[in-house]
Every structure is written in structure tokens, then in C-alpha cells.
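Hey all, quick one. A colleague (J.T.) asked me to put the thymidine-5'-phosphate job into the tracker so the inputs and the C-alpha cells live in one place instead of scattered across chat threads. No bug as far as I know, just bookkeeping. Sequence used:
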Amino acid sequence: MLGKYTHRGTCRICGSKNVIKFLELGQTPLANRFLCKEDLTEDEPYYPLDVYYCTECGLVQLLDVVPSEEIFNEDYAYFTGASEPMRGHFSGIADDAQQHLPITEDTLVVDIGCNDGTLLEYFSRTGAGLLGVDPAVNTLQVAAQKGITTIPEFFDENCALKLRDEFGKADIITATNVLAHNPDLNGFVKGISLFMAEKGMLIVEVPYIKNMIQNVEFDSCYHEHYSYFAVRPLTYLFSKYGMGIADIREVPVHGGTLRIFVRRGKEESEVVNKMLTRERELGLDVIGTYIDFGKKVKLLKEKLNTILKELKDKNKKITGYGATAKGNTLLNYCKISTDILDFITDTTPFKQGKYTPGMHIPIFSEEKFHEEPPDCALLLAWNYVNEILEKEREYRERGGKFILPIPEPRVV
Ligand code: TMP
Ligand code: ZN
């Protein structure tokens, strides 16, 4: 069944009508909408998953907008603290923040999209006031149990004014992997400009489109990711609200992420200019680059399906490794179902016993992977490739294989 969504005809940063479609991933269900056994007989909502490039400001985006209430509700399955590598990453953000701005007991740190409070926990060492904002109440409850003041809301201009009245201005605002999840970028950044202290700092993390293009990470595209960022459209977005990027660095999570430090004032730093130059050199500001990417994605699908078919023809047992949201884009786009994958294993208790959206592949705990090892495992959590290959050394030494889907499908 086709779910409810709206189509917008203009870029969500600059409002231009010059938005060009370069990737069609078909109609897919929401990538984090895992199903219980009882749900399997029900009609799942599907939504078009097409990706566009704005030739004015350079923002890559979805224009078929599934309302955020549909996506980030009580069934939302993503728990930040669930994966070990992410915990190390979050501790790094807190350290980085300390270096840019001294944190004392008088500092108010606000995490927007705080999820289960993993990031704020690392700030608790500093004695700062901690405030977590997130519309997904199931994860927010976990944050509240950690002693964090929680606000169950989607951050926008109104929310910003309310928070400012109640708690005063924020010294440090963090928003990791949140901007992509907000269909109203202008409302979000305007809200920040109202809520942030004069000498305050916003730390934003977004997956970097450079890596997505270079590594053919097409499966990072799903409905909850409305936008895919390069530095150029971001500098424009912040400048509209009197802010600029003071510092920026690349960090190796989610397949390649930008950590951006934003302050009031429009001055762009040297490091930003360098990155803008590099983006031009890589062609990230021309539509042809994105059209080529779309072609690569089609080839990837063909190649992956060929590999899987060959293995199945040899009666090999194949399972999926990591029931990730991006995995669901990949499985639905490539139409990989239970005729190919016996099951998927995942460390997140919330996902175990459930089924993947669309393809309905059962999810089990990691033990099952070791109890009933396959001949080959499709790595759906490819962002942790090194950790997982290391962790499953024994499986590999006994002849077990992994299929890495990107940048080009291959068996290792
Ligand atoms: P993420 O990419 O959104 O952090 O999700 C990673 C998913 O992969 C999460 O559901 C946990 C799962 N996972 C495993 O099952 N085994 C692992 O070793 C790792 C690192 C992750
Ligand atoms: Zn634009």
C-alpha cells in the first residue's frame, strides 16, 4: 500500500525549482519499521525513494516527504548506545567540545536528537547542565533513566523559544546525525540561532556526501534521511541565520561523517575554504557526478544479485549480518528476501525476534550466527566492516565468507 507523503517541488534549503532526480530506488517501506510476527499479514506502507540534486545550492535531498511523525514514533528502533564503536565516537565528541569551549558547571549542554542519552552521558563528567531533546519516546525513556532532563519534542523554532524561556540560552548545542532527519532545515537552524548563547557553539554531525558518492553508499538513502550534505550547501544554510562554520573535521562513522563547529558570525575559516575547493575538484557541485553515481548503483544491484544467485545455485547457506536501516534499503532495492537470506543476526535486543520491513527476513541474536554459521554472510552493517571482520575471525578461519556490498560487491 502507498503510504501518506507529500511531494515538494523545490529545494529545502534555497527554495530553487532546479532540482534534478538522479537516483530511483523504487518504492520501499520505512527502513526502521521492523515488524512483529503479527504485523506480517498487514499491508505495509510503501513510499517512493527518489533522490534529487539542487543545481543552485548543491543540496542532495528527497522531495517525497514522509511526515516525521510517521517515522520517529514509539516504534522507532534505533538505539545509539547499542553499538560499541558508536560509544567511542560519542566520547570523542565530548572531548572535542571541551577543546573548543571550556565546559564548567555553569555550562548548559543541549543534545538535539539525544536518543538514549549516550552522548550526554559523556558530558556528565564535566558537571554541566544536560538537556536532551528527542521526539522518539522509547529511546528518550532510557536517557531519562540516566538522570538527563528530557524534552519529548521535535526541535524547531517553537521548541527553541520554549526551551529558551524555561532553561535560558544554550552554551553548547549538539546535533549528531539529526540534520539529515529534519525536513525543515531552515526552521531547525533558525531555532538554533534563537536558542544558542552569543558565544555559544553548535556541533553538528552529518554523513558526508563525498564518501557516499565515492563508496557508492546508496543504501544511506532512506526516508528518514531527507538531506545528504556537502559543505557548500551547509555554509549557505548557516549564513542565512548569521552563523558560520568555525571549524570542521571528517570522522570515520556512518561511512564518513563531517563534524562541524558553528558559531555566530559569517566568517568562514581557512579549513572551510579548503574543503570547498576540494568539493569542486571532486565535482560535487555538478549534476553529472550524481548521474554517474545513479548508474553505478544500478550496476551494483546487478552484480550483487549475480553473486548471490551463484552462491544459491551452489546450495550455499547465506545470512545477513546486522539488521541495519541501510540494509533495508539495500534488501528492498535489490529484492533480496528469504529465498536468499535464511535470517539476519543483530546485537540489538529490540530488533531480535522481529522481521525486516518489506523483505520480512527474521532477525535473531548474534548467538545464532555462531550456532548455525552460514557459508556466507551479507554484511549489511558495512560501516563496521573492520570491527566485524576482526570479531568474526574464527568464523572466517573456518572458511566462512562475507559479502561486502559496497563500493562494489565482493566476497572476502
Ligand atoms: P548503525 O549502523 O545504525 O549503528 O547500526 C548497526 C547495527 O548493526 C545495529 O543494529 C547493531 C548491528 N551490529 C551487529 O549486529 N553486530 C556488530 O558487530 C555491530 C558492530 C553492529
Ligand atoms: Zn538548493
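Adding what we noticed when we looked at it: Residues 11, 13-14, 16, 54, 56-57, 59 surround zinc ion (ligand 2) (CB under 6 Å). The first strand starts at residue 6 and ends at 7.
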